Amino acid sequence: MYQLLILIPLTVNINSFDEGWPDFLEAAEDMDGLIRESVSRVDRGIYGQNNIRRIYSFVFHDKSSLEKALISPPGEKAGKIIHEITGGEVILISGTFQEDTLDRIQAWEDTVEDS
C-alpha cells in the first residue's frame, strides 16, 4: 500500500482550515484508488521539536494509484482547496505504508522460536 500524508502545521489558521475541510474531503474522497483515510490530532509533543497540529493519512493500493489520483480532476481540485485553506502552509509527503497487529507479530515470533 502507499500513503499520502497531509501535515497541518501550527501556523495554519485552524478555524479557516476547519471551515474549508469538508470541501477538500468531498473532492479527495472522489479520487479513484483511495481505500482508507484517517486523522491524528496532535495534542502535545513528547520529544523533540513539534510544529504539527494535525496529520491526515490517505491510503492507496500502490504508488501508481496515488499518482493517478493526484493528477485526476478530483485530485487537482482537492490540491487547490488544501492550498487555499492552509494559505500554502501544508506539508505533503508520501511513501509505502505497512501495518500489522501485535497478535500476528507475536504469533509469528512463537512459530520462529518453535522451529
State the main characteristics:
4 strands, flat, Alpha-Beta Plaits, alpha+beta, 44% helix
Describe the 3D structure.
- By secondary structure, the chain is α+β, with helices and mostly antiparallel strands.
- Helices cover 44% and strands 27% of the residues.
- The chain has helices spanning 14-28, 63-71, 73-86, 102-114, and strands at 2-9, 34-41, 52-60, 91-96.
- Strands 2-3-1-4 form a four-stranded antiparallel sheet.
Short description:
The chain has 115 residues and is α+β, with helices and mostly antiparallel strands. Helix content is 44%, strand content 27%.
Q: How is this fold's topology laid out?
A:
Blueprint: E1 2-9, H1 14-28, E2 34-41, E3 52-60, H2 63-71, H3 73-86, E4 91-96, H4 102-114
Antiparallel strand pairs: 1-3, 1-4, 2-3
Total strands: 4
Q: Which whole number gives the mean pLDDT?
A: 92
Q: Which regions contain 5 or more consecutive residues with pLDDT less than 50?
A: none
Main sheet attributes: strand count, strand direction, barrel closure: 4 strands, antiparallel
Derived from helix and strand composition plus strand pairing, the structural class reads alpha+beta
Q: Quote the beta fraction.
A: 25-35%
Q: Tell me the CATH topology.
A: Alpha-Beta Plaits
